[in-house]
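As noted in the main text, all predictions were made from sequence alone. Below is one such record, for Calcium-translocating P-type ATPase, SERCA-type.
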Amino acid sequence: MKWHEMEIQEAAASVKTDRDTGLSDSEVQSRYSKFGYNELEEAKKTSALLLFLGQFKDFMVLVLFGATIISAFLGEYIDAVAIIAIVLLNGVLGFLQERRAERSLEALKQLSAPQVSALREGEWVRIPSRGLVPGDIVKFTAGDRIGADVRLLSVKSLEIEESALTGESLPVQKTCGALKVQEAGLGDLTNMAFMGTLVTRGSGTGMVVATGMKTAMGQIADLLQSAGTLDTPLQKRLEQLGKILIVVALLLTALVVGVGVIQGHSVYAMFLAGVSLAVAAIPEGLPAIVTVALALGVQRMIRQKSIVRKLPAVETLGCASVICSDKTGTMTQNKMTVTDIWSEGRQWKVTGTGLDLSGAFTFRDEPVLPKNEKALQQLLTFGMLCNTAHLIDKEEEKRIDGDPTEGALLIAAMKAGITREGLEKKFTIIEEFPFDSSRKRMSVIAEDTAGKRFVVTKGAPDVLLSLSRHVLWENRQQHMASSHEQRIKESIESMASKALRTIAIAYKPLHGSHKISQEEAERDLVFLGLQGMIDPPRPEVKQAIKECRAAGIKTVMITGDHVITARAIARQLDLLPQNGKVMEGSELNRLSDEELEQIADDVYVFARVSPEHKLKIVKALQKRGHIVAMTGDGVNDAPAIKAADIGIAMGITGTDVAKEASALVLADDNFATIKSAIKEGRNIYENIRKFIRYLLASNVGEILVMLFAMLLALPLPLVPIQILWVNLVTDGLPAMALGLDQPEGNLMNRKPRHPKEGVFARKLGWKVISRGFLIGGATLGAFLFIYSRDPENLAYAQTVAFSTLVMAQLIHVFDCRSEKSIFDRNPFENMYLVWAVISSVILMLAVIYYPPLQPIFKTVPIVLRDWVLILGMASLPTFLLAGSLLSAKGKKA
Ligand code: ATP
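Prediction:
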């Protein structure tokens, strides 16, 4: 028999599970060995060997290999072996870099893997979806992605969108009874839920009947092999740039070789020098270093609680000019406590904070017992009845399982001695119409022990007011007169102006026990009263908003909450400037897209909005030229998250749908984390710029020193193996260390970067070329000086040129840390760089002074007094640069 044809008991028996306690841990372990993990097989990854060999597929490297073989034939064995060793070493480094990048991207994927709720050993636990086994009992609510194939056990208005499997985009209403359908398609199996489909409404529980490749999704998994990782715009741009640079480097090298040959150098010597030069000057490592810098940045971001799901977001973050953020839970703590209760024109206060159940009720500062206050007692009771939250109260943890708003209502009722167990004895919930942010309300149909049914609705007060025809006043149900309405509105506003989040509760007796629709249930209600709860702002948010403002980033609050509550919180957070506008969802409805666009820049708070409004807001801001970051958590937030330049989902309260649409997930749901992520995004980009600047200036220097020497009919200032050494050491470690550099002090005091800004913007191109000239010139100068002093000892002059080039680059690397000058920054801030430079210097000294290396690198020990010349020439470019900056400053002043 098929799963859908079985009754629940039969199905449970055949997967050997207990629907009340789930599986035991030992049973889960044994099922792993039997069924494996709940995973779809992925496409094969590139093997390590291929990745390693890939390092040598570069054309110039192959030519270099060829050239080395020729030199071996000519008897230059040492040369040949040394060159091959260096090229291999270079390949190993490239391989390690690439693998590291790949690994961290892989780790990222794991981090954002979906989680599911499963019943294990009688307790609900959150586990990664790959941990599910057949027989697991699972639960899910709107916004979740189903983790495996499931036979449903219970449903509450459950609707699931199965387009991934069936192509049908309309959600299917789910049931849980056995089905007697023959030849059914997946779409007809309404008592099943399938891996990868999306819960769009309601909630349900089920038991896993198939996992991994055995699921319906597994059978078509071949079609679903995910696309490769996305390259970021910068990576793409650098790839293009890389191609241009290859051509330029080749042309220049050819020029060096041509001029050299004309000047009388041997073709063989020039060929080998040329190829080495080309290998050194072509920045083949650039894309890998960029990926490593991105990946390392992403790891730093994880430590700061932001998880990047799409790599390009790292770059876009640095361009963000507006952050649109939810209020509840993101700017506030989501730790709600009911403090004020209002009914029939009377107002009570409740003491106590958080989940502490000791709290007292007062009326006009006098203590009261809720059970003696009928309206109060009823308001609290209904607040617990129309409520899906649970208090988990164990020794090791005390928390609310469910919506914090409902948690607050639950705790308030418990303070009055009302318990869930007590209520369950008196009432049965017949039906539940779940809360969603667009309806801003939730209802249940309950039945008491006498069989009488009634509706309880709770939700946004203004919404409930419009659904109520009656009101409970002076202990009886009265027609809602405008005077009542006036009083209710006043109390809503008075609560809201104290920054309280307000929930209204209404009810309606039903006649008979026939099934009624949601619309029918929520019509003509009796308004009962209000509960107001505090939800204090997160303490760090105010500072974060301030820092964003300094960084040219505007913060906009978007909330489903009441406009007055929203304004009060915005004021507490210093988010709303004097002339800043607050706009309500109803006004948003009236405005056309163009009209909204006109005023979008002035609005700082959008209140009582539905998730659908968010998309309109994102588009209007984008039309104004903004790069928009937008947060969200629910199913309906997904379109706006997707449309935003940086979609951000909440890690704790966010649904799978929101997370999947997002580029960034906040592990702690905290607004301040967005600011840190933006800062990190800016820093990563700046660091990439730093090492591009360093690498390219170094390469220009290397080429120019050779070119100048050839033009001046001088001997080769550097031998091929020295050039390759520079490429390996000087261009290797220090460049990597720049990728780990700390931000400059003014990073968050600049305007956001323009997204179209090119790699060489802000004078980077000029810096590269001018510095390249200076490095090349200084090296040649040192070479020329020594060579003219003693033309007989060419190797000595070459060793001096080599040292000058290396030192000039190692000094220049510190210049690259600042947009201004080397003296702006403390070099010891970045100890990676200091150590990278120290090790490069030691390696250089080894090559010069360690006798066994001398014949390989064609070096001669340099006498101490010549180091004065070397260091002087090497630091000359830095002093010239600093001097020119100073004089520019002087002129300005
Ligand atoms: P934000 O968008 O900043 O997260 P929010 O949490 O107030 O704000 P929603 O969750 O959409 O936004 O809630 C909108 C309104 O619906 C709330 O102001 C409240 O009055 C009401 N509400 C919130 N949660 C519930 C619930 N569980 N049941 C009934 N009504 C609710």
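Residues 223-229 have pLDDT under 50 and may be disordered. The radius of gyration is 35 Å. These features were considered when defining construct boundaries for the mutagenesis experiments described in Section 2.9.
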